């Protein structure tokens, strides 16, 4: 959807309805200037494919998710992004990955 949008640095996704989405593979792939993204409005309960969702997002620093979308954390493996929940609490990516693999 947004893959290869190299000039994308910020985007408002609050109005996206994702409750019926099953495949989010590569939607932000190679958005190399994307630094922060708020995915807290995303409903990922039906998503079964997320391969390469953030591949090539080399400047990604902060990702905000909701607590029901913890499956997004797996896609942040290999990035340096910090993850916070919708309340601003830091989520340890390493702890999550170690406890869920």
Which helices and strands appear, and what pairs or packs with what?
Elements: E1 36-38, E2 62-64, E3 82-84, E4 90-91, H1 93-99
Parallel strand pairs: 1-2, 2-3
Antiparallel strand pairs: 3-4
How would you briefly describe this protein structure?
The chain is 7% helix and 11% strand.
Give your account of this protein's structure.
The chain is low in regular secondary structure and 101 residues long. It has one domain. It has one helix at 93-99; strands at residues 36-38, 62-64, 82-84, 90-91. A 4-stranded mixed β-sheet has the order 1-2-3-4. The radius of gyration is 12 Å and the shape is globular. The termini are far apart.
Notable traits:
little secondary structure, 4 strands
The strands making up the biggest β-sheet line up spatially as: 1-2-3-4
Radius of gyration: 12 Å
Overall spatial form:
globular
Number of DSSP strand runs: 4
Instruction: Report mean pLDDT, rounded to a whole number.
Output: 81
| Class from helix and strand fractions | little secondary structure
